[in-house]
Amino acid sequence: MTKEEFEKAYCERSNISLEEYRRWFVTMPCECDYDGCEGWAAIRNNPDFIAHQKEFYSPKNTEEQ
Question: 23-33 pLDDT, tens per residue?
C-alpha cells in the first residue's frame, strides 16, 4: 500500500477530507506488531507523538517520509 492509498482509505474510514487529515495528522512508516498494520500510521501532528512513533514503531533503516 502506498502512502497516498493509506491516507485515502483512512479518510474514507474516518469520514474526513484529505485537507482535515493533513491539518491534524502526518503519515509515517510503521512496523508495529498489530496484525492489521498496513505499513503506515496516522500520527497526530504533534512533536511528542511523532518522536514516539519514530522511537518505537518506525522502521529503523528508513528516514521519515
Answer: 999 999 999 99
How many CB atoms are closer than 10 A to CB 21? 18
* C-alpha triplet 54, 40, 9: angle, nearest 5°: 145
Of how many residues is the chain composed? 65
Please state the domain extents for the chain: 3-56
* Integer CA distances (angstroms), 26 to 6, 37, in order: 11, 16
Helix (H), strand (E) at residue 9: helix 3-14
* Phi, psi dihedrals of residue 62, rounded to the nearest 5°: -130, 160
Stated pTM of the model: 0.84
Give CA 50 to chain center in angstroms: 10
